[in-house]
Protein 1
Amino acid sequence: MPLRLDRSATGFEADFAAFLATKREVSEDVDTVVRDIIARVREEGDAALIDYTRRFDRLDLSKTGIAVSEAEVDAAMAEVDADTLAALRFAHERITAHHARQMPQDDRYVDPVGVELGSRWTAVEAVGLYVPGGTASYPSSVLMNAVPARVAGVERIVMTVPSPDGQLNPLVLAAARLAGVSEIYRVGGAQAVAALAYGTETIAPVAKIVGPGNAYVAAAKRRVFGTVGIDMIAGPSEVLVIADGNNDPSWLAADLLAQAEHDAAAQSILITDDAGLADAVEAEVERQLARLPRGEMAAASWRDFGAIIIVADLADAVPLANRIAAEHLELAMDDAENYVEKIRNAGAVFLGRHTPEVIGDYVGGSNHVLPTARSARFSSGLSVLDFVKRTSLLKLGPEQLRLLAPAAIALARAENLDGHAASVAIRLNPES
Amino acid sequence: MPLRLDRSATGFEADFAAFLATKREVSEDVDTVVRDIIARVREEGDAALIDYTRRFDRLDLSKTGIAVSEAEVDAAMAEVDADTLAALRFAHERITAHHARQMPQDDRYVDPVGVELGSRWTAVEAVGLYVPGGTASYPSSVLMNAVPARVAGVERIVMTVPSPDGQLNPLVLAAARLAGVSEIYRVGGAQAVAALAYGTETIAPVAKIVGPGNAYVAAAKRRVFGTVGIDMIAGPSEVLVIADGNNDPSWLAADLLAQAEHDAAAQSILITDDAGLADAVEAEVERQLARLPRGEMAAASWRDFGAIIIVADLADAVPLANRIAAEHLELAMDDAENYVEKIRNAGAVFLGRHTPEVIGDYVGGSNHVLPTARSARFSSGLSVLDFVKRTSLLKLGPEQLRLLAPAAIALARAENLDGHAASVAIRLNPES
């Protein structure tokens, strides 16, 4: 049974605060292992990759090669059935079109006193894309990570993906081909992250690493951060559905379960002003769970982390939603358009009854890499901005320098940085 | 003596690679101490702040209060001399004008098939600004951190600053007042970071923490990351000057020393195609060092981390500069405008002989919080973007859902996420 809260009940605030504070992640202590793996890859390069892959993936890279060949990708493309490939292409086109709108504009201008200022955006030169192996090896995630990099103008997009027992998901290779991934290596885990950050004989280093992974991958990304950039460390996925009474309970139940089936630590929350609807949704969840292939996983998530919150009025849900700051927020109501204006913290909002969150996972066009665990309060989903960086430009002539110098010198002296003051003053009085 | 490299010498590549790999930071192992401090602040709140401040800052907060009062800030404003206050105001205006151009635009549109998509930017609700005490307590840094937050629309800007023996820098308080800081607390160190992240009776928690600090502050920021957002952990500052032969060596020497005086771990690098100029600059550095109040610091930095690289042609400096990816890059040459087009990795570029980097520290208008330690390869200086976050919006009607559904269902099934497929399918066939 999921948690059930009533906003009008005594003690709601304490219960809600405790709910918000619930940790959904088991933090495995893998840091020592990861430190050693990184050190060995830095020292031994390819040889370390070969050894770890033999041990962890039961695969001899000295026979297969570390790189996945173009011919292998060709074969994967041929192997994928036509409908799925068409769906991947459709998703790729929609994601590309949306992300093309995100490219930031350079800004170069002269201010009223003649100082030239500017902000210039350039692409990160090389990006590593980590793709998990096994059941979490999602072609949609390859598109969601590679497309913004490609749109940004990243020249080298380097994918690493473990191939346990030599198996690679042909759909993942197909997605990589569509998205313009430039190199693919069959390595995974902390060793792949180390190779991307520091390079080996075969893998040239990158400047930034993105993509999801298990506890070892996350720990490795944290460790190499600084040497390279990393994306956010994603936590378990979550959805918040805010629904009025005028909904088909089976639709809402399906949406809650789509989230819950990801992971036993995923979270599905329903807020409604209709207690009757809440009951109906709960019954529907049980009914649909029975026929869901990943029902056991979904049931655990719903039981341990699911929640239903009853409010007297949907307006009361706004502050709760802003505190939850959900990764995914569905507004299953008539006037979603006005309601969303009041929502401040959410990774992505799905407006109206005909926009299930799953559309955003695949073909909506927006990115499905979104801030989890309340981090939508301070961060954004993956976008083109994650693959570009800004350089400030400043240009003064002698006249502008004379104009700005007194204030710069005054502040430098106030901060006891006389060398700073001197570097300005010396240009005013070159003979000094 | 600084390192001296000649690009045409045998072994240059190995020497340059070793130079790039030089670590300039001593990583103090403070993590255990910091963990305990954070745990105690979470548990005991204000009482822990009072105890730590008594111990570390020799100040009794139970007498002074944790908050700095408006009257204290008024008094500080009155205490600052008129010229310095005018300089602060001048800087504040220029920084505000530049950052106002950085506010990203919302984007809402309907695509060719009628799907509504959008990117909506909202300000982070509350931001913590850490300001160091003692000699590193810079009013200019208060402006550089607070102004972009203010421009972004952050409602609560909460400043913490330690006051060793009860001393607060009046200029720091004045800068806070000018920049619109909403609350100021006289606490520092890991305990201040913990209070900002988790809150105490007096200090309400924030969603993001920015600002420089010592090893304890940096370790605390790393630890609370996830609960709140943080900015980059800044390393020692650095400047790269690329100069043709037609420069006054005393100007270049002054610029190199302005950087070197920051910190013994700061770094100043000169690349030139004129070995004679290099010699003259080196002699000038020695001459100016003698009269610099922070000469000992600057001398240590120049001796341990300074470098002069001779190239046959300034074009040869481009790939070196892009690998160095300096925080600050000065182009002391005639045609800086064309040269900068080839520069890809740099935090900020200062064009021409009349744009010393120090102008950017104070009054240029651009931000002086910039990526250090080669991180300009993958990250940007502080900007308004660091204080806003983007929410994706997606809205389909029944017709759009029918159009996108087949591809979404195909991909969901290909990923073995039948619950995902069901959440789309159930809307096509409600009676199922």
Protein 2
Amino acid sequence: MPITLNRHSSIPLYRQLVNALREDIVSGALAANYKLPPERELAERLGVNRATVLQAYQQLKSEGLIASHVGRGTFVCASDERQGTAPPWQILFSDYSNRFTYHDIAAADQAQQAPDAIDFATGSQNPADIPDDLLRNVSIRAFESADFQSTQESPIEGFPQLRELLADHMTQRGVRCDADNVMVLSGAEQGLDLCVRAFVNPGDCVLVEQSTFFPALQAFRSADARVIGVPIDEQGMRTDLLDGYCKRFHPKLIFTIPTFQNPSGATMPLRRRRELVETAMRYQCLVIEDDPYGELCYSKRSAGTIGAGGFMDVGGGGVTGGIAGASSSPRRPRELTPLKGMENAGYVIYLSTFSKTVTPGLRTGWLVADSHVIARIAALRRMIDQHTSSSSQLICMELLSNGRIGRHIERLCEIYGHRRDLMLDAMRRYAPDGMHWSTPMGGYYLWARLPDGLRAARLLDDARHAGVTFMPGDMFAVDEDDSSHIRLNFVRPDSQLIEPGVKLLCGTIAEAVQGASGHSSER
Amino acid sequence: MPITLNRHSSIPLYRQLVNALREDIVSGALAANYKLPPERELAERLGVNRATVLQAYQQLKSEGLIASHVGRGTFVCASDERQGTAPPWQILFSDYSNRFTYHDIAAADQAQQAPDAIDFATGSQNPADIPDDLLRNVSIRAFESADFQSTQESPIEGFPQLRELLADHMTQRGVRCDADNVMVLSGAEQGLDLCVRAFVNPGDCVLVEQSTFFPALQAFRSADARVIGVPIDEQGMRTDLLDGYCKRFHPKLIFTIPTFQNPSGATMPLRRRRELVETAMRYQCLVIEDDPYGELCYSKRSAGTIGAGGFMDVGGGGVTGGIAGASSSPRRPRELTPLKGMENAGYVIYLSTFSKTVTPGLRTGWLVADSHVIARIAALRRMIDQHTSSSSQLICMELLSNGRIGRHIERLCEIYGHRRDLMLDAMRRYAPDGMHWSTPMGGYYLWARLPDGLRAARLLDDARHAGVTFMPGDMFAVDEDDSSHIRLNFVRPDSQLIEPGVKLLCGTIAEAVQGASGHSSER
């Protein structure tokens, strides 16, 4: 049983071991009833951690290739024991799909599944904020006048009229573009998946914010990319470090959420935006700008334990009423200019969606990019899902017409800005010493650092027990666990539940602090 | 400039040439301003068609790597000519996306882009057959009663009510299944893409019908699978050869369109279906059953130069009115039982869609499979597009309710069966000697073999010039070009254009036959 493991491979050691043993078993090189070495012994022989061998054996057991008998050891199963009528799923699934780390998803689900708790965890809107009447009206209007025969097949890039409307919408937001540069997507996440397929080779390096949207991490890792986290602070990605990261890692892509970042709520100021785009261009590295929250901009607040970057207002007057996406003269802070609005060469690929501002059910997002990107992605999509549902596209056209969506988002910003304030007030009132948090200027999330020594994941159980739930920072961390932060969605709960929710949460944290100090003084 | 092309590779010769030249240019082996050999000369040197070299040069020009100067020849561009401020796209695109063979798509587009010609080429419905009123009614009905707040997010697998309706629909079609075994897709093609991602590792073998739906070939090849074509005849895949193919190639997947196959129109009889499923199970190989046309079953015809498999009717009486998908006691030939209805172990993954029976614009299809498959694909989709558009799902629920879709398909079968008969009659009347064709019992396509010596791709230009268009068999061929067959979509044109279209086509073929014999007698 000579086995050679390659420490420099991107394939984890335990999977290399699984593959080697599986091949030996399936080929018959290891006969039925062959007794495998004990885990510890094999680990020593291969010079690996015992956990690696343990994990490999467990995988092979789940495939029915080996079995352990208590007190006797681990044996190769006879092939007739293996052959049931069911397909051998574990052997049939692709390596690619095996790279999807299910446990992260399970952890997210667990945080969200607490039906009676006050929900600061889930990353979507409160269903009550979905504009039911607006959607019903625009949908019926869209279908009353629809000509299904001429809309039977949308171009892959989307209906020209919708692309026009989106190009106008983006131009008003500071990204001058033509309809040709816009592609309609089935959600912004699809855009991410398509970019990965269009650009990422196994082993390519992708830079991301050190804590980020975890499906993005998943998308890059599933493509066997090397994902490197760039440190962040309250002004988002540390672009002063970016040149060094580019020099060292030669990234092909930088993935960033520059505005109201998920999970940190941070917004990159103009200077950092410039630095990011210039660095990317210098290293011929593409930038994927994910911007699901950019339009949800609330009025200025000066409070907060950690001072936010500070907005520079443009157009006179403070940012008072949120961004009017469809208004003709938007008053928006210059700081919020999308990266895509700062270059024309084609390095930035911009993604956005209606999921955070209208409803995720539409599954409609869009991409703004160079024509090379659009053409390549269209060629891929032709073999995948052709185009975004015509019915969703017809509804979105109505939504974008006559300033409807602008008025809706304006209303939403008032409600959400108020909830943000409620949460900040409650945090100031109830947070125990040693806790720090950001002052988000928009978006969904407040990012809080726990008092020293507390672990977010462990706290979650107590919090759920107390009746409140949040997302532990670990979920978003690239490299190592970030157990010191928690993400609180302040738009999700009903307004009147925010103060009691924060009170419960902070009470739980305070108890944990006392428990920890009590525990440590006992030692 | 030593270049070696591999005639046995699945990569087209022109792309091999592009890759070799690109590498030489980028590496500097071919210096700036190097004069490339004229197309004819290089073609002779390599022993390939001149068109191959032409296509390769064109591709390199579009990449900015070479340029032609009239009267002087073709030269390698200096690298500073290539370096603008634009990103170096050709270097940035992934190998995966480079594997998408654009020229095939261009060929398909070319066949379809003949606005004034009678269209037997395009693989979709006649827009006039899209049920405009039905779609408007069900859409408005769906949205009048829709509760957008509770339907803001569909489960990944689809709304439970739609999965129920689809499970009923499938059970009536001979596939007993629960809602749990059904997943709503954004088109059947997405199901194919997801299956590739869930199951195919680079180098895995996939068996397909020797001529097949070309996006499927594309999906498998993009995943670097080894795609092997199993011979077909007028009864579909030669399942008698399948054991040998499985023994030799150890396929992970068999992809098949058993009913009204695209492009051959062939339908596998029950015996072959059994043989396929049994062989797959014996070799622990999954089967993807693509069934977009299965419900479009027309009345029996005995005519045709090549005799079709011959249907065994079930339930008494001939197959007279098409399949009533939603009727309670469908009269359907036993031959049409989907493969998925013939096994319970989980080996068959069934895909279908509303694109061919209602409209492709809905982008809604479905998958019936073992719970392991559903779970794995849901985990992937969670990171891709979450779920199929809620609005499309709501519309499909209404379509499937109250037997609406059954009545619509029944009507469609009458129209399409009539068009099939018109085409068969016209073929019998006008086809020149030496031409053979199938008698499709359903679906969209008639598959015809040209008289000896004619090449479909070459004929296409003449036919378009004459005012009629078709899809050359080359488009669908796995291994080698199939230049002897053409695919005719008989449902696409208006009924009154079928006879004149066939007349024009057969006239063109007859002329080509004469031209060929004249040409050969001249030699």
